[in-house]
Amino acid sequence: IYRAQSPAALPTFLLIGPSGAGKTAFLTLTECNTPANTHTSTAPLAIDALLPDAHPPSSASFRSAGDPAYERARRFLLLDTPGHGKLRRLALAQLTSAANIRAIIFVVDASSVADEAGLNDAADYLHDVLLSLQKRYTGAKTSKGPKEIPVLVAANKLDVFTALPPHVVKVSLERAITDVRKSRAKGLKDSGAALGGTDDGLDDERECLGEGGEGPFEFRQMEEVGTTVDVQGGNVLGGDGSDVDKWWAWIAEQL
Ligand code: GTP
Ligand code: MG
């Protein structure tokens, strides 16, 4: 049996981020139009998703609903990953192994980044995601597929009263990533010294996020390696229902 287009050929949006951020909740909302109860994920999960009517995909915005080209352009694959610290390697591996990654949605709980521990955990993970993208871009000679991959930082749970507004989530993450970058650079230097102090052959391992790793890190620096980073707020759940329109609008722009 042949399908017009196999799921593997659909553009993939990778959901990644700390545990409890709301990735699976967003997946179920996209799939069923209503968020279902979720529990901690232990394995990646992909669904064949359809952009809601209110958000025409940018590549077919001049077409109307029902037009086959429009209907095709609305389809995408949403790939959920587990956020638990011990499973992050798996999730990061999807970045290089999953076919056809169009974009990345880094979901973060906007209230958990209000405290230092939550912020550092999220920044640590986001740093690694961005560094993978940078390496993918700089080593693009051999890899296939699009090398420019945009990132949406989805600041979730804005319904929670302790949630930080999206622009504060943005600057907090940038500040915390600056610290992660500093401590990683120091760690690499120390391990380099332990290995005898030569730089030879370690360049790849030593790659530092952003422009030479000096000064404060800003998401804007990622544009040099083909990645734009947007921060948009929303809530998958909440007393007044869910509001993830900004995320869908962002997805529509990438389709
Ligand atoms: P892992 O699978 O462990 O990586 O976590 P996850 O990112 O998939 O989190 P999940 O979607 O399971 O959501 C975690 C908890 O947060 C669940 O109890 C959700 O009901 C809750 N939650 C998700 N989104 C929102 C939101 O917008 N507002 C509120 N108040 N709670 C939310
Ligand atoms: Mg989950």
What does this structure look like?
This protein is of the alpha/beta class and 255 residues long. It has one domain: P-loop containing nucleotide triphosphate hydrolases (Rossmann fold), CATH 3.40.50.300. The protein is 35% helix and 15% strand. It contains six helices and six strands, in the order βαβαβαβαβαβα. It has a six-stranded mixed β-sheet, sandwiched between helices. Helix 4 packs across helix 5. The radius of gyration is 19 Å and the shape is globular. About 2% of the residues have low confidence. The site of guanosine-5'-triphosphate has 22 residues, from helix 1. This is Signal recognition particle receptor subunit beta. It comes from Polyplosphaeria fusca. Its main location: endoplasmic reticulum. It is a single-pass membrane protein. Pfam families: SRPRB (PF09439).
Which features does this protein show?
255 residues; alpha/beta; Rossmann fold; six-stranded mixed β-sheet; 6 strands; globular; binds guanosine-5'-triphosphate; binds magnesium ion; SRP_receptor_beta_su; GTP binding
